[in-house]
Give the backbone structure.
Amino acid sequence: MTAFLIRRLLESAAVVWVMSALVFVGVFAIGNPVEILINPQADQAEIARATHALGLDRPLWEQYFVFLANALRGNLGNSFVFNVPALRLIMERLPATLELAVSALVLAVAIGLPLGLLAGIKPDSLAGRMISAASILGFSLPTFWVGIMLITVFAVELRWLPSGGRGATVHVLGIDLSVLTVDGLTHLALPAFNLALAPMALVTRLAASVTREVVHMDFITFARAKGLAPSRILFVHVLKNILIPLVTVLGLEIGSLIAFSVVTETIFAWPGIGRLMISSITVLDRPVIVAYLMLTVFLVIMINLAVDLIYAALDPRARHEALS
């Protein structure tokens, strides 16, 4: 297992390095932020001073190596707009995004897994067919449209829930959390459900598909022949086999939820890194954009590494391959 972990860490480091080059070139080769940041009436001397102050007068390769050297020290540059470390801006808003993503994932599993089990056990029943159709609909509906409909129905028409913002928070271990207050939960409900809709449909279809395969296997037939209760067969034998592919998919989904929460955060005015990313793009705040992309890449890689370790713990065959 140690050799497997070292190999995966080296692979992860290589991926981060390659992505840093791609992200840097892709972001810094587009547009000129000086044209947005300074007064349109500025003369050429002022433009030249601003360009030099931001380090944009250097060749692109030199800018990259300066960025790489600073990144190894934990410095991803200062925001052009706020003149503070870009990483600090990201870290201040990261807890809000993580809270939203984790809440969406919990909703997706809590709702999607029971529905998938039901659809897998009784695929030809009315309930099974309705669940399968609803899961397809969950994949098809655009996130921005669902968000607007949720606001229209629950915030504007029924006035049950607020339309945006984060609500009241509680400071715990240096992190502001809204899930610990009633007002925070009411503000979290709509954006979390909106973000959870696609992974919920994925969990439902995956659980249904795996359940249909597992229930016809020999060990399930043997368990029934032994007279085990249906609930024990379902929640012990069937569920254990569902967890292995589910953990792999959920590991990828949590990374996707963090990376693609931009639309949900924008619609519901959620103060996370996705909303910060949109505002930074509009003013070409390159250090913030690069810091956001690099942090997202790092989080996705670390989540995938954790998923590999959990998968090896759940599946003895994967553990044997890791040790070999």
Remarks:
- Residues 86-121 form the longest helix (36 residues).
- The two ends are 9 Å apart (CA to CA).
- DSSP finds 14 helices and two strands in the chain.
- The first strand starts at residue 170 and ends at 172.
